[in-house]
Design goal:
The protein is an alpha/beta fold. It has helices at about 5-15, 35-45, 80-85, 90-110, 135-145, 160-165, 200-210; strands at about 25-30, 50, 55-60, 65-70, 75, 125, 150-160, 175-180. The relative contact order is 0.20.
Length: about 220
């Protein structure tokens, strides 16, 4: 195991991001697991925290097979996977519509009426608890580009080497604590990798707003 739990992973990630302490960075987390990691980073760096909601697009009959992701108005498709699954345009559109509806529901829940943080001209640190294929993070990065940040830093505790190489081209900086060649799955590298509830996410976001009321 590399990490005891997500909080410990976040504290170790914060050490690797210490050079951004004076950059007035904004921390954006990919829910749900990424929020726990990001909350530890935000506390350590004394930075504001918000969420960037992204939804994986799963094949209609095999939802575990992702063929893309949506975030905001951005939809990213993995053309090779779409072809391999033989998905029609109608099938794709139905999945996209369903996931956009769930995305909007989750944003309403997490934000509790608060507007998203303004990231224009800021350094944004995008955090998840780990990456597998990187499709979700890629959609998040593309959505972020539309918000005009000055820099995008993608930071994760663990990811496979090929994902790190590919995503490193999409961002200004990529911080990954470990890239094991025998990756298999994110949860394999945590001793405790429990499911995170919406209430846990909300509690962490509320704490962050209390620490940085000017950003709420």
């Amino acid at each position: 195991m590399l990490f005891r739990d997500r909080t410990q992973a976040g504290l170790r990630l914060a050490e690797a991001l210490e050079h951004l302490r004076d950059a007035e960075a904004v921390i954006l987390a990919l829910p749900r697991g990424g929020v726990v990691v990001a909350a530890a980073v935000a506390r350590a760096l004394e930075a504001p925290l918000d969420v960037l909601v992204v939804r994986k697009l799963g094949a209609p009959m095999q939802p575990e097979f992702g063929f893309g992701a949506v975030s905001g108005d951005v939809c990213v498709l993995d053309d090779r996977t779409v072809r391999a699954l033989g998905l029609s345009e109608d099938e794709i559109n139905r999945v996209v519509a369903a996931e956009r509806a769930e995305l909007q529901r989750r944003e309403a829940v997490y934000r509790e009426g608060q507007p998203p943080l303004d990231v224009a001209g800021r350094t944004v640190v995008l955090i998840d608890d780990g990456l597998a294929t990187g499709g979700t993070a890629r959609a998040a990065v593309q959505a972020l580009r539309h918000m005009h940040p000055a820099r995008i830093v993608l930071a994760v505790p663990v990811a496979p080497p090929d994902t790190v190489a590919h995503l490193g081209r999409d961002v200004d900086e990529l911080v990954c604590l470990a890239a094991p060649p025998d990756f298999q799955a994110v949860g394999r590298w945590y001793q405790y990798f429990d499911q995170i509830s919406d209430e846990e996410v909300l509690d962490l976001l509320r704490q962050a707003r209390q620490r940085h009321p000017s950003h709420a």
